[in-house]
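Folded chain entry —
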Amino acid sequence: MDFHINIKKKSFVSPHDKTSIDVLKNINIKIKYKEFVCIVGPSGCGKTTLMNIIGGLIDAEDNKFNKEQGDLMANGDYGYVFQTSRLLPWLTVKENIELVCEENEEYIERIESLLSDFDLHEFKNYYPKSISGGMRRKVSLARALIKKPQILLMDEPFVSLDQPTAENLYSVLINYWKKNPITIILITHNLKEAILLGDRIIFFSKRPASVVYDHKIKSKSKGISTDNTEIQKEYDQLRKKFPSLLKGLI
């Protein structure tokens, strides 16, 4: 399912002084089905706002959000992984995943399969406080994928993780994506992470965010690690060509 986002402007009104703050401006993006797109830009520029519009969490107002082959918001056909795991502490690993789906034989089998694929099966009856931060992120990813969404939205899901833990999660995500091709949209501040995982990187400007550069990733990594010569080479080329790209300037 391809979709096209066309946002002329998205603003918020400050609750304190009622002033209007422009967050997004002139966003025109087409994302292909099964494409892995990374969004990179300065902090506070509007990346999460765009993600929340795609996911139907906030109103797009009178802007255009066109999806081919149906209405994603109406079908709830997306999964969302946030910056924190957002697990309920009084529920076990398995119960946190069950929370978002119906209790029937199909989902029971699917939950067991995901727990095994994500190396969580032996921890399924543990509570979130009893497992590591990386494992909690795995649970939140499994919860987002349990209903087989066509689009997976990920808002800095690997932030604050050490490199070995992050790379373990990269492997879990990529292995799932290879077996179950879906559209993935990932927000990250880590350019090497974006080059490693994505097909394409969309760079945003400072707020109000607009697209300053749309980059097709050339590197084809053989290993899921940011310590990779091909990843480093493309990273260096981008930074040399556009020294201020991560600041939203080109």
Summary: The chain has eight helices and nine strands.
